[in-house]
Amino acid sequence: MSEENTVAEEVPTRDRRSQSEHGVDRILYSDGFRRLGGVTQVIAVGEIPLFHNRLTHTLKVAQIARRLAEHLNRAPSSDARLAPWGGIDIAAAEAAGLAHDLGHPPFGHVGEAVLNEWCEGSGLDGFEGNAQTFRLVTKILRRGPQTGLGLGLNPRTLNALIKYPRMRPEGQRGPHQKWNAYPTEREAFATARQGSPDGAQSLEAAVMDWADDVTYAVHDLEDFLRAGRIPIARLLDTDGREMSRFIAAATKQLAPKDPEFSPDFAERSFRTVAETFLSRSKHYRGGSDDLAALQQASGQMINSFVSAVRVGPLDDPIDVPAQTKYAVKMLKQLIWFYVIHDPALATMQEGNRRLMAELFEGLMEWFPRARKEGEEYRVPKRLVDLWHMSDDEPGASTYRDRTARLARCVADYIAMLTEAQAIDLHGRLRGRTGQSALDSWMAY
After folding, report:
1. Of the candidates 157, 182, 294, 316, which lies 20 to 30 Å from 425 by C-alpha distance?
2. Cα(193)–Cα(176) distance, rounded to whole angstroms?
3. CB-CB contact of 135 with 150 (8 Å)
4. Is 334 within the bounds of a domain?
5. d(CA 435, CA 437)
6. Residues 291, 230 share a domain
7. pLDDT tens across 233-256, in order?
8. Dist. CA 345–CA 339, nearest whole Å
9. By residue range, what is the domain housing residue 270?
10. Distance (Å, rounded) from C-alpha 396 to C-alpha 390?
11. Buried b / exposed e across 41-63, counting CB within 10 Å, b at 16+?
């Protein structure tokens, strides 16, 4: 089996793209990127027309990451500010935006939590969406049968993908812990991180991370405001009761995550952005002028959140003013408070949780039985390929036993499904599908 292709090869002389620009194109045309059109952002894919899914979210993250990188590159005295970083690689920041969600499984954070629980129970160090993304681009996604494992992204692009610059700390468990590589990808992780300060993001990774925050805060808010789930009129009502209720809940959620958190400053920051931008959609009813006003406000918020950023020191790559940072955090809390914590969504998530657990359990039981009975050919081909790849992949010696190795393969396989595929495969494994037994459901 070929080793990880983590360093891009020399490009033909007629091809004027940089290695990072090659990375952008490889990600954009990869099978994993196309899958994002069938994966949840917040609301299940297809449930409400025109809601963002992971694909439209990703495209906007990449666009904002590129514009932010260009903004930093064009700023006064940019050469001096960027010199410690060796400049900024705009294409690497864009590539990171395109790839940042590739490893996120069906059904969002619920799916991630289930896979983490089952992987831990099988002797692995868990499942984490960012670590899965890194595994995908360095091993699982391929450009051709003879090109080796991975997409051949250059180290700077790989480093731009590392939002959490660490392996999983020893003994750390739980679904809320974040890290960026499994033990099987330790070597590729070390190559990507070479020359970077310990524990600090690269400049391009920080750009991607902020672009992700801004996109989540603005575009998801836009979705739910249009759907009538964010009560802007009540929030801005002169009696202040709804505003006080939201701010109390939001600051309670945010305070434990930041020892320097200031509830008063968070409130002032949110009130400013609400009165400046959200007030224009106070009486949104879906008309042409309403939509134009909402989109104008969204664009101006994004411009404000991007233009406020400056280059920071090596251990803290971008400098975001505190007011801007708090405003984005509070906008993200609007979605949690009014949508994600809503019982209507919670019941659906509970169903998704059970589906994912039963799907993992079913594949873990079926695959070894099929191999024992000489019927490996009956198992989905992609899962079989993952099993054979894992036999001698770089880092294979870190698997505790065959159960752990199979669990990683099953997690890899499930994480590459769309939600429709996950639902259909679950139904097939439990004898409850309405599809034809001969239907070629696994089209890619």
Report:
1. 182
2. 23
3. no
4. yes
5. 6
6. yes
7. 999 998 899 999 999 999 999 999
8. 7
9. 224-343
10. 6
11. bbbbbeeeeebbbbbbbbbbbbb
The residue whose two tokens read 């997690």 is: 411
Distance CA 103, CA 135 (A): 8
Q: Which residues pair with 319 in a beta bridge?
A: 310
CB 338 within 8 A of CB 258: no
pLDDT(433) > 70: no
Q: What does the alpha-carbon distance between residue 126 and residue 120 come to, in Å, rounded to a whole number?
A: 5
Residues 336-361: tens digit of each pLDDT:
899 887 787 788 889 999 999 999 99
Distance CA 119, CA 151 (A): 25
Q: How many residues does the chain have?
A: 444
User: How many C-beta atoms lie closer than 10 Å to residue 319's C-beta?
Assistant: 13
Read off the pTM.
0.92
d(CA 35, CA 110): 18
Say if residue 424 is in the same domain as residue 395: yes
**CB of 266 within 8 A of CB of 326?**
yes
Q: Which of 225, 210, 238 is nearest to 93 (CA)?
A: 210
Q: Write out the DSSP string of 211-235.
A: HHHHHIIIIIHHHHHHTT-S-HHHH
